Amino acid sequence: MAITVAVVDDHPAILAGVRAWYACTDPPIEVVAAGDSVKCAWIPPGDTADVVVLDLNVDNTVTSHHGTVRRLVDAGRKVIVYTMQDSEEIALSCVELGVHAFLTKAEGEEHLVSATIAAAQDRPYVAPALAGAMAANRLPHFPQLSEREYEVLTLWFQCESKQMVADRLDITTRTVGTYLDRIRVKYANVGRPAPTKAALLARAIQDGIVDVDDL
Fold first, then answer.
1. What stretches of 50-146 show up as alpha helix (H) in DSSP?
2. CA 113, CA 110: separation in Å to the nearest integer?
3. Taking every annotated instance into account, which residue ranges of this chain make up the domain Response regulatory (predicted)?
4. What domains does the chain contain, in order, with CATH numbers?
5. Mean pLDDT for the chain overall
6. d(Cα 56, Cα 165) in Å, to the nearest integer?
7. Per DSSP, what are the bridge partners of residue 51?
8. Alpha-carbon distance 170 to 80, whole Å?
9. Considering only CA atoms, which of 182, 147, 151 is closest in space to residue 169?
10. pLDDT score recorded for residue 194
11. What is the torsional sign of CA 7, 93, 198, 108?
């Protein structure tokens, strides 16, 4: 089954290029909506797309991207920010808001296609620009994780599902979920909430729990 995407960008060449990149992928990726306003992500068939690829330059969202991204994420949309903005602050704030990936347009076809497939499969994707922002933003408030919590967290980033983690550790998926919930509570308690898998991955990279090269 094809992955469906809504692409929000105000540059016709970018829209044409993204369509061309997606046209030759495996699994197939179909652009079902495209336009220069975030409205196209909500209008059918855009509101049924698996993934929303969002340029922060549309609808004046560079300086007010929080509201736009939050509305999409809160509605359950899987968002990839694809932008000319290379600010570490903007990249990290988008991850905090729950986007599946943050890419600069300089990172091109390979990363956008891979990130789109990962988002459709509910996996985080860390492109080089975001990896650099995460690594440069090591924060002093580390949660106290148990050895088992470290193990579950690391495996969860390396596996495609909680079931795979459970099989590796010979525990139930409910137990995996319990460990992850505890980890999220610990991060929230030190003032660093991580509500999504991508946000939790950002925290783990910042804290040196995992390395991008290990994923």
1. 65-74, 88-97, 108-120, 128-135
2. 6
3. 4-120
4. 3-135 (3.40.50.2300), 147-214 (1.10.10)
5. 86
6. 35
7. 5, 78
8. 34
9. 151
10. 86
11. positive
pLDDT digits (tens, 9 = 90+) for 128-180: 877 777 666 555 577 878 788 888 999 998 888 899 999 999 988 988 988 89
**How many CB atoms within 10 Å of residue 88?**
15
For the chain, the 3-state helix, strand and coil shares in percent, each to the nearest 5, are: 55, 15, 35
Q: Which two tokens stand for residue 95?
A: 């991850």
Is residue 158 within a helix (H) or strand (E), and if so which, with residue range?
helix 147-158
What distance in Å separates the CA atoms of residue 106 and residue 114, rounded to the nearest whole number?
15
The DSSP 8-state label assigned to residue 38 in this structure reads: G
pTM of the predicted structure, to 2 decimals:
0.70
Asked if residues 130 and 96 have their Cβ atoms less than 8 Å apart, the reply is: no
Residue 214 pLDDT: 63
Closest CA to 74 of 43, 99, 56, 37: 99
Please report how the helices 173-189 and 147-158 are oriented relative to each other, as an axis angle in degrees rounded to 10: 110
Check if the beta carbon of residue 83 is closer than 8 Å to that of residue 55. yes
HSE-CB at 67 with a 13 A cutoff on CA atoms is: 7
Give ∠ CA 110-132-202 in degrees, rounded to 5. 90
CB hemisphere CA count around 167 (13 angstroms):
6
Write out pLDDT tens, residues 171-214.
889 889 888 988 988 888 788 888 888 888 888 888 878 776 66
